[in-house]
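Supplementary Note 2. Why include the ligand at all?

Several targets in our set were suspected to adopt different conformations when bound, so apo predictions alone were not considered sufficient. For every target with a known small-molecule partner we therefore ran a joint prediction. The input for zinc ion is given below.
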Amino acid sequence: MLDLIGRFVICESPSDDRAAVDRFVDLVCDTLAPVARVKTVSGGRFGRHLVAEMKLPGRKKSGQILALGHSDTVWPVGTLRSMPLRNYRGRVCGPGVLDMKGGIAFFIFAARALRELDLSVPSRVLLQLNSDEEVGSVSSRALTEENARRSHAVLVLEPGTGLEGRLKTARKGVGAFTVTVRGKASHAGVDFQAGASGVLELARQIERIARFTNLSRGITVNPGVIAGGTRSNVIAAEARAEVDIRVPRLRDGAALKRKFRALKPFNPRCSVTVSGGLNRPPLERSAAVRRLFRTAHTLALELGIELEESSSGGGSDGNFTAALGIPTLDGLGAVGEGAHAAHESILINRIADRTALLAKLLMAG
Ligand SMILES: [Zn+2]
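The joint prediction is reproduced in token form.
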């Protein structure tokens, strides 16, 4: 397993490098070939999405389980030079090992184990790996939803939470707004009063927008990027802010959208326009999600693991499937720390139980 994880990690696959992602997808296709019928689907300007129908023991399949992951990482090609693949103090370290090449390897080994031990799996099992998850899943979302609609459960191979590997039974919805202010340019010395500053107006709008955050309800609003103006001696004609939003419930997203749309200029000589909205709906901790977690909890106890659950502020493709009402269990992949960070690593002593848990979940149907 360490060998396969290592081969996955050294095949770098950043979302914005289509050729690199395709090379990784080819590697996964080759690895899956003996155990699945594999096809790939165009991802447009991104790499190809992979859909594999697993060949698992058991006649008479009823229903379908979708295992969901992504082939892309946040790390540019060449990251290995400063962040090499290595085994260190009981961990495998390297770009993308936790998010989420480890989880992909676990799933493949779970399928192999089921075949080698001839353990029956009652459902059809599909593995889908998207090539654009780290950049919002624009090109894969429809495919994810199509395959999820035919499934009675979705298992997401994203990493668990913390060094305990807690599963994710709730994820916030994620959105983005762009707020554009248009004012009127003029000479800051000669004709000051003729101008209407877009920068000043935006500063006021940002104060207002930041107050949309409601920490006790888990709603966060972050004006993360601002831009505007041309020179210090010109009253700025235009300014813009890009704002990230996170909401635990779908209705919080709708309420925020209304608030953004209702923004009015403080200075009547400026205009404010807003675009954007929710990109990923929240994964809400529904009764169906809780049931699926209880099943996993029971199966993990047989492996000597007391599974816990967690909620995350980050989104995954599981957000889309849960929003369709399909029971979705997320965070079933590797256990480690440092996703998207220089110390990204997975715990070697948690590889076996995570793989076994995936196999058991497939057997439980
Ligand atoms: Zn991920």
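The mean pLDDT is 97. The radius of gyration is 23 Å. Comparable summaries for the other entries are listed in the accompanying table.
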